[in-house]
Every structure is written in structure tokens, then in C-alpha cells.
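Archive entry. Fields below.
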Amino acid sequence: MNRRSLLAALILTIVALLRASPSAAEPYLAVLEGYKCNVCHVNPTGGGLRNDFGITYAKVLLPAETVDNALDSWTGKLTDRLRIGGDLRADWSRDTAPNSPTTQSFALEQFRIYADLTILPDRLGIYVDEQVAPNGSQNEEAYVRYGSTTDGFYLKGGQFYLPFGWRLQDQTAFVQQVSGINMTTPDKGVELGWEHSAWSAQFDLTNGAANASTGSGYQLVTQVVYTKPIWRVGIAGSSTQSSAGDRHMGALFAGLKTGPIAWLAEGDIIQDDSLERTEAGGLLEADWRLLKGHNLKLTAEYEDPDRAVRNNQQTRYSFVYEYTPLPFLQLRAGYRHYFGIPQNNQQNQQLTFFELHGYF
Amino acid sequence: MNSRLINAFSRGGVALGVALLAACAGNGEGLDANGQPLVPGGAAPAPLSADFESIQENIFTPICSVCHAGASAPEGLRLDAADSYNLLVGVPSTEVPSLDRVKPGDPTDSYIIQKLQGHAAVGAQMPDGCPTTQPCLSTTTIGFIQQWITNGAPPAAAAAENAPLAVTSIVPDQVESVSAPLPQVMVAFNHELDVSQLATHSAHFEKLAAAAAPAVIDQVPARIAVSSDNLRVLMLWPVQPLSAGHYRLVMDAASSSQISDIAGQQVTLGAPDEFGETVISTFDVGVLP
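PREDICTED_STRUCTURE:
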């Protein structure tokens, strides 16, 4: 590491230590570093646009190799008040399942642009997350934010992702699928949040996805997380009132750092009156930072789509290698094996993928 | 305190890890392919494959037709076994009329694939509410539909080619409500039609007054065509947008109401009234929400 990188790392460390609750981008990074989500992200519940610290972390601490000069001036800020960012993921994947034709293809998974306009510093801002490709523009998040997202209360109003358990990068993870809350399912409403020391809490009142077309009903979501340098624990609950049937969910999740490994665990239980069933999902993830810029991600997942029905459980195991050679560039290669009931081919598929991830 | 908590978390994590790693997938005993308990005496559906019959049995019927059925089927798209093929293949989507719902040989430009993958320019990903209230279709499942489309989207092998020519569905009909502007009226048949006969047909839309004895207060001529990708579907469009109101689609008196298939079989679209006109469909056009 050269002197410039050492200096940047030192500054980052000092800044992190000075913050009330130190934090990063993906959940495993937050666990490894002992950070809360708002240390690296504009959004206090994580994901999307990175703040000054998040950009610096992405430039200096995350990649295997830092690049001097060329990236020094990039902070994500176009002006003092306007910050932008983006994510592009393109991949090749191969999907095989018993008694089924193998499919393989290149795909542009997503290209998202983020923007945050500060109207009154630390008090009032507008945030936008827009997916611009593939196939046209689609708004994911757009909200007004009032209050402090680093220490104290804040209020969001508009469209945003709901806080419920780990906000994983993999939107197909069983816990993200059974809860239905992930980074493809924003909702409209308001969020009251509180950030203080090791505590983070949110209370959301939204339409509820099931009520999008009926104009009736609502969804309440609450999440509380307690974060310490090498461990954290969180609890979340959600209740949706809908003419289609009510839906109640609970989640317990935790993270622990043991040496170079970050452990993430989550258990979800869902009672869905519209489907007249109770579902359950579980996740255990280990992220092993082998070297700077190299991460090995292993996951074991469990899903019971209907606890009243026997012999229908599904599991999934994943092996993913993430290599970040340079700032703002990540290469991912992975293999996922699904295990389900033998008469359903799709529940026994195997997925291999290579992904190119650019972000700024 | 911290070391105790860490130990507790470590033990909990290890226990959860062991439980997850040891957790086995269900053996499927007593379940159908959708993971539902078998009905005593009922036959389990065949595993999903890239043919229409299998896709209908494993996807459209158990998943899609929960909503896409009957007079209130969203976008007039009925996906029950009787209607789905003819309302999908070669039929323009109502949300993006420049794209067919299923374009044989071209899954990329088939609107159903865009809707299932969540990339469509309009509306939500299907199945509706996925992944909130139900899982989205897996890449593999969508792959079967893509493969079927790539293969030319052939109908079910068991399609009754020997049965007499008959109308299988008309959309909209039975005083259904549709949002203005009406995209098209579709009349689906069980056989491919003789398109050379179409020039002899003409039709128009009649707007009716709301009265006990409805009077025609406006007429709009109709265009008639058969989808080049699905010769089983007759489509009729108003030549200008229809305003809100109660309508019927009428085959003109001077035009034969008999439609022929390529084998020469004929079917009558409806019984002519006292003026010799045949009412094909009756529906309401509402204002856009």
C-alpha cells in the first residue's frame, strides 16, 4: 500500500471511530466493519446511493488495488447539494433442471441511477432511485426526507423500500422471496426513523403491495436493530390489512464477525390469510474476506412454503466468489443448487452465473 | 457481558447453521408437482415441459387463471384452458399494442415474457403481487415458455382438429366493462380460419342509449383481420376510439355471419336479428381510471 492509500485508510478509520455508530455497502461488509447502514449509504436503511464515506470506502478499502489520481476527485457530488451514483449489473447465466432444456443467456440485469438533492443540509432532502434499463425507465424510490439520518429522528414520505431483515444483494434469496420485501418491491407511504448510537429503528405506514390496485388497506412495518462492533441483532414485524386477506410477518436476524468471516443469519415466519397458509424461511450466510478485494460467500437457505403441508420444504445452497480488482468494479461468479420436491423440476435447478458489476 | 453475548450468538449461529445444513428438502410424498396435497383419486399433472399442454396445466391453470379468468379477467386475457391459447398467440397486448402477447418464434418480443420477467414497459410483474404475495416464476419455468415460443408456439397436440368449427371465446362479451379506448374485440375459434373469406365480411360498433328498448345513438365502422401468427383468432377494431358507453359489435346485414375454416367448415357467429344483423359482442366502455 502506498502512502496515499495509507493516509486515506487512516482518515477513514478516524472518521469511522468518530461516528457514533461505525458502518458499509453490503450487509456482510457492515458486519465485518461493525458499521451501521447509514455510515456508507445516504439511505439510513441501506442500499442505493453511497455517501462520502461510502465512496471513499469503495475507492480505497474495498478493492484489491487502489487507483491513484484518476479517481481522487470523484466523490459522487456534482455540486455541494446534488449527489449522484449508479449501479450496473450484467451477467451470463446457465440454468439446468431435471427433465428440462438447459437455458443460458447474457442479460443486463439492471442499470440504476441514484440522486440525492440536499435542500437544507442535515434536515431536508429529496432522494431518487430510478432503474433506467432494461426495457425502459422504472422508478424504484422517490421520497422526501426530513430530519437527521445520522443521529435523531427523520421522516420519509414517498416511495421507498421497506425495512425488514437483511437487505441482501440477492433478491432471489428465500428470505427475500417469502417476505416479499426486497429491493424490487418498493411501497408508497411514510417512514419514521430513529438513529442513535448503536440503535436504529424504523416505523413504516404504507399502502401494502396487495392493496396497490384496490385503494384500500394498509401495511405497518417496524424494525429495530442494535449494532455493536462485532455483532448485531435485529427484529422486524409487518402487518398488512387487505381485502384479499391479511398478512403478518416476523423476522429475527443477526450478524457476527469472527476474524475475517462475517456471519449473517435470519429467520422469517409469515402468516398469509389470502393464501390460507403459514410460510417460513431461513438464511445462514458466511462471507470470508480471503484477501483485500476477495470475498467468498457461502449460503444455506431453507423455505417451507406451507407449514401445514408435509414433505414440501425447499433448500438452496450457494457458492459465490466476489472479486473487486479496482474501485467501482466487481466480478462475481457463483453456483446455486436448489433442492425441492422431486416432482417439481424447477425446485431442483442448478444455476451458474458470472456477473460484471460496475458502480459509482 | 459482551463475551457472554458473543458466545450466545456464536452458539445460536452454529445451531442455526447446523439446522440449515442438515435441513432436507421435502421428499414430495403425497404432493403434486405444485407442492399441494394430492386429491384422493386425482392424477398428478405431468412435469413441466416446453409444450402448450404442459404449460397450461402447470402454470396458466394453477397460477395465472386464479385472476385471469371469466368476465373480469385483467386486460381481457383469459388463461383458463379453454381460452388461453387463442387469446395469447398472435394477439396484440392491450398494454403495449405494438407487441404480441406471444409472437411465435420470438420470445424476446413476446409481451408475456416481458411481463413474467418484470421488464415490461407497462404494469406490474406477473404473477400479480410477486414476490410479495406469491413467488415469481423461476428463470427455468420462464425458460420453458420461452422454449415453447421459440418452437413456434404450437397449440396442444390434443387440440380437437376433428371437432366441428366452433367459437371458443369472445372477448369482451356478456356486458363486460373495458377501459377506453377499446383495443380490440377478439373472436377465437378451435380451427384456423380461411382468411381469403374475410374480405366479404364487414362489421360496425353500435353505441346504445341506456333505455329499456336500446336505441342506436352512434355507429363506428370496424376493421376485421386475422392474426398472421394465429389464424384461429378473428380481431375487430373500431376505426376510431370509442367514447364511454354501452356498445355492441354487429356483423352487417349485407355481410355473411358465417366464418369458414381452411377445410371449408362453416360456423355462424350468431343468430341474425329482424334486420339481418348479427350481434357478436356486447360490452361497456368505461373511462380510464
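CURATOR_NOTE: The longest strand of chain B covers residues 216-227.
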